[in-house]
TrEMBL record:
<keyword id="KW-0812">Transmembrane</keyword>
<dbReference type="InterPro" id="IPR023090">
    <property type="entry name" value="UPF0702_alpha/beta_dom_sf"/>
</dbReference>
<keyword id="KW-1133">Transmembrane helix</keyword>
<protein>
    <submittedName>
        <fullName>YetF domain-containing protein</fullName>
    </submittedName>
</protein>
<keyword id="KW-0472">Membrane</keyword>
<feature type="transmembrane region" description="Helical">
    <location>
        <begin position="50"/>
        <end position="66"/>
    </location>
</feature>
<dbReference type="Pfam" id="PF04239">
    <property type="entry name" value="DUF421"/>
</dbReference>
<feature type="transmembrane region" description="Helical">
    <location>
        <begin position="20"/>
        <end position="38"/>
    </location>
</feature>
<comment type="similarity">
    <text>Belongs to the UPF0702 family.</text>
</comment>
<dbReference type="InterPro" id="IPR007353">
    <property type="entry name" value="DUF421"/>
</dbReference>
<feature type="transmembrane region" description="Helical">
    <location>
        <begin position="72"/>
        <end position="92"/>
    </location>
</feature>
<feature type="domain" description="YetF C-terminal">
    <location>
        <begin position="95"/>
        <end position="226"/>
    </location>
</feature>
<keyword id="KW-1003">Cell membrane</keyword>
Amino acid sequence: MEHDWNVLLMGGRELPLWGFAIRATILYWMMIFVTRLMGKRQIGILTGHNYLVAAGIVAISASRMTNPKHGLIEALVILLFYAGINILQSYLDIKFPKFIGRKPIVLIENGQIIKQNLFRALISIDELMSQLRIQGAHKLSQISYATLESNGKVSVTKKFEYQPIQRKTLKLPEQDLNLFLPHFLIYDGVVYHENLKKLGLDTDWLNNKLLEKGISNIRNVFLAMLEDEGTLYVSVGE
């Protein structure tokens, strides 16, 4: 019996059936524990490193469940190490998104396909059309913007006349609509000067807008984003 427990923990040639059952149970609960430890980001936002960690955890657990030569303890250590690396990577991705994370790639802008960005994203026309259909956009003529997000999914913005709630129905003037993708202006207290310049704005305009919202220090702003129709969204960090 002592030998069986040693094989269960450290690995060996043979393992009794009850040992496989115990090993599988422990690894199953360990996978649940490390998944919860890594947070909802691991499940809901599948970035490149999240995918690799998930695949690695499954592969390690499966091999340790079926191969008696592999030890249970080393599997538990590796799973915890994987979880720690993923948490660190996610933190760096949030803290330094410009250096760690992948930026979204605009595939369609103002109804026009951007050929060089398709090559950059390694997406064919057939793959693009497939993703658009999944989003309920079956005609290119109806699309204003399509963006390949950092999680690998394509988001779609339809032209105003094809959106569920039409401005024509609400009798709103079309010339008031200035549809464009949101632009980051501030992230974690850092001003995105290149985006301000691209929009024809400056820091004086930004400071005045923040003062209108009662914010005098840019460093207190976690996120500021210029949205559709010139709306400035601001979130103050705690």
